[in-house]
Amino acid sequence: MANRSSHKLVILGESAVGKSSIVLRLVKCQFSEYQEATIGAAYLTQTIVLNDPPATVKFEIWDTAGQERYHSLAPMYYRGAQAAVVVYDITNQNSFERAKSWVNELQEKANTSGVIALAGNKVDLEGQRAVSFEEAQEYADKNRLLFMETSAKISTNVSELFTAIGNFHRFV
Question: How far apart are CA 147 and CA 58, in angstroms?
Fold first, then answer.
C-alpha cells in the first residue's frame, strides 16, 4: 500500500456506555459482558485498510475513563487528536445529554480540523431504547458529526465506524 497515515483518536463518553467494548471489539474482536471500568485511559493501536484508492490508516486510540473524577484528565488525551468518538448508550438518555457536553467541549477546545463521530452504542438492546435514532441523527447533522449506531456486543457498525473516520481523513 502506497498511502499510509497515522492518526491519534480519542474515545470519550460516560462510564458504562461501552467505550472500551467498542475498542476491544475493533482491535481484538472480543467482547466481555463484564468489562472493568477504565482507570485514566488505555492505549491501543489498530490499522485498517481502506479501498478506492487503497490506503492503510493506523489509529492510535486513547480509550478514556468515563467516571466524572477523571474528567479533568480528558484534555490531556484529546489535545492533538485528529479524531474523536463520543459514545452514548441508546438506552440511557442521560448518557446522550452527557455526550452532547463532550461534543461541545471538543468543538471549543480540541483540534477542530479533525472529525468528531457520535456513536450510539448498545443497539442490541433496541427494546430498551431511550434515545431515538432520529433525535441523535438530527443532533449529529446540526453539529456536523459523523453518526452511527453500534453494538460492541454483536459487532454492529464497529469496524464501519472506524472505516468512515479513516475515509474522512483522506479528504482533509
Answer: 21
Reported as a single tens digit per residue, the pLDDT across 38-96 is 666 678 888 888 887 788 899 999 888 767 656 777 888 888 899 999 999 999 999 99
Structural domains counted in the chain: 1
Task: Look up cell 475513563; give the residue.
Answer: 65
Domain of residue 43 covers: 4-170
User: Which of 131, 165, 163, 166 is closest to 149 using CA atoms?
Assistant: 131
Distance CA 107, CA 110 (A): 6
Residue-wise pLDDT tens digits, 4-48: 788 899 999 998 899 989 998 898 877 677 667 666 667 888 888
CATH number of 12's domain: 3.40.50.300
Q: Which strand ranges, in their side-by-side order, compose the sheet holding 146-149?
A: 41-50, 55-64, 4-13, 83-89, 115-121, 146-149
| Distance in angstroms between the alpha carbons of the first and the last residue of the chain | 20
* Residue 160 host element (H or E): helix 158-170
Distance CA 47, CA 67 (A): 28
